[in-house]
Structures
1.
Amino acid sequence: QDRFDGTRVSVSSVRAATVTPALGRILAKRGSKSLTIAIESGSERMRQVVNKKLATEEIYAAARYAKEGGLTGLKLYGMVGLPTEQDADVEATAQLLLDLKKATPGLRLSLGVSTFVPKAHTPFQWQGVRPEADKRLKLLAKRLKPKGIELRPESYGWSVIQALLSRSDRRLAPVIAAARGSHESLGGWKQAYRTAATCAPTASGPALPTPPAWDDVIHGSWSPGRVLPWVHLEGPLPEATLANHLALAIAS
């Protein structure tokens, strides 16, 4: 008797290249029903831009092997609004899911998708949130949901709030205080930002520093060399290296 009988095993995410029928059988035997793979985008061009070393055929192979191993579902994760992304790249993501559905009938497919949000100390720290990302989330829903493919999008508004928090400096402090109790809605944060931007001096002291323009913080593409809010923190790579990586990514 297997001493692990009754033991359930699940994995949060795996590399597509590591999926085999044997892995599928092991996970299915241990109670897992699906696998999760981060693809970033269904467009090979976009995967090159973000340096995601993943070929389309590896995604197809992972789906086939998952089904052969006895798993019933495959969850893919990606993003919209990546730097240089075009509508055609989003269409490529939708088409990949539709083609996978045809290639692996009976395998339940789902796509979790979020909007790109810049992060400090990465090559894309200078790139803002793209306003068209909201429209592209809706495009994916229009293409996939009627075909029975589950779409689990992250709120575009929440992505904007993330960008506000990740790209701001100390001038955001009064905004955070004013947003308290706004139920974390985008409208509440915008109202708090407007309030902070028009703050006047009070009897107890001067006005607080005015935050920069909303669009510049959220959507602005900043030039390398700009003084960043996190410049006083040492990251794993020098800024010059990150700028070179950005230039190579944009060129691709």
2.
Amino acid sequence: MLSPLAAHLLLLRLPDTGTASYWQLMEVFASPQELLNLPARSLAPYLKPVAIEALADYQANPHSHLARLLATDLAYLDAQPSLHCLLFDDPRYPRLLREIPKPPPLLFVRGNPDCLSLPQLAIVGSRSPSGGGNENAERFAAYLAGCGLAITSGLALGIDAAAHRGALSAGGITIAVMGTGIDRIYPSRHHQLAQAIVDGGGALVSEFPLGTSSHASHFPQRNRIISGLSGGTLVVEAAVQSGSLITASYALQHNREVFAIPGSIHNPLARGCHQLIRQGATLVETAQDIVDQLSGLISYKRQELSEASQRDDFFQDDTSTTTKATPPAAKPPVAPPSLSAQEQQLLQALGYDPLPLDLLAERIGQEVGALSAALIGLEIKGLVQQVGASYQRC
């Protein structure tokens, strides 16, 4: 008879049998083992034809494709001491995630599975944020990590990566929920960041079978886990059609807090945040606003983890300084080919809110005196305008 883990792995490997199908099946059968011990052809009322064919082949042929996949999965897991599989009844399975509709029946966790029980805040936003948006994500994450919140995000480009890095910079815990198999880092450029997350005491998390590649349909599924793990979700920058709003929508469905940073009315990447605020999300200007709102969750989790004799060093307070949020600036459109490299860099760094010249120089790592000619050129082209001693996009 298959072990509980092997039975879960096999069931979730069946074609067209995902999380939703799993929970429908568990309304009929006591366990995956019970289901898989039945003749495949007898499961016609419960499984799709393609799944029945695959299971019938597995039951008849010890060298079937499904049998080879299962053997490969078990061998891989056995060879990876830092990789954990949490079944739904595992005491380490995060309590908040249990509460969402149709939670993942199996979580692959690389790193520290205990960190999933920490109080968490999700930080999400655009994959192509402005300079100000990146700074806000990193600064908010660093401050909140210092206050005892684990920072949860999706390992994507842009705001996700900035949030992970901000938490790491403060010596905090960060958790990356993936839209791929746990053995596939996406985007590939984030291998080093993923390893830093694990080395820092955090974790990579996925519900997808080993070897699963990136696909657009996976990211809404991933987003529901990001929300489900977290006591609240902060949206830093997001267009109206952004996938970040899917995460916020799940947070509302899960009765979790939703926070949004406002921005310029001219900033396309602020419109998603403004929409959330109109719908009832909490407008935040500082990271302390979030700490105040989630103080009950932080205190409860500290007590819960202390009673369970978990690591005290997850909760090092450093709330002496309140980080003020700079209103996010929009990602500019693709620069025209006629722009010089320096002009393109300036255009990328500027948003729709005035930015002092010295801060602009600091942001792009150049001396103030070296920017004047390029800024004048951008003014002549109608792309930026001077406002006092500051500059902004037109």
3.
Amino acid sequence: MDFGTRVDREQAFAVLDAFVDGGGVWLDTANCYAFWADPRGIGGASEEVVGAWLRARPGARDVVRIATKVGQNPLVPHSWPDSAEGLSARAVQAGVEESLLRLGTDHVDLLWAHAEDRAVPLEETVGAFGELVAKGVALRVGAANHPAWRVARARSLAREQGVEPWTALQLRHSLVQPRPFTPVAEAGHRMLTAEDLDLARSEGLGVWSYSSLMWGSYVRPDRPLPRTYDHPGTERVLAVLGDIAGELSVTGNQVVLAWLMRQGIDPIVGASRAEQIEEALAACRVRLDEEHLVRFAGAR
């Protein structure tokens, strides 16, 4: 997310190299990353760095799969969300064309609708995404930060239009949860719900989670969890997390990632240093058994 802004090109290349060296495959970015940290007030820096890395590493594009998002890049600098590009057919087409130029590729492996745009008929958005799949510009399409009912409606519209439907969801999720019905501070974030999971499991959709490691709050005392997570369930879950991490001789972050994967969720991890990626990839080797899952469930 922060490549090209808070994470300079040299750091980003080191992270990407470590990711591929460790067996990583999927790179998730967005055309709006990271307008809030870019003096220009617009997105594109993250995709530009990924594209530069691909050019500097011959053969890398054959190894990695690229996911990016359209819909939230501000059209006027420093004016998000008022000037977010949205999800009209024209905006989607233009956004993808610009992303491909920055990435230096002729297609993306997964294209996300970054957030809802209720000013545009859902039929139009669905048709635009389906057309990109038909052209081979996107191999797969999905919805980020959309409620389950909108995804279900979009999939129905795709069937009616005879185009490729959204087959993946991306929402915020982690081991700890905020207090019910309490908005999180981060604008645009939508929490994963039981309804989302039910839809995904019944329809065979992929589920990706962001903010999976809560910006380091599981392992860094200097980064406490937001106040919306201040409730007894959090304390109990964190206590169990510490116990299990100690029993398995792994980090708390690795247990959290392993727990997400046991739920059938693909966690997205943001990193600014190579060692963070190495820690995250090692979580694939952490095995949580049913007893561990029961302990976490009981702590909630």
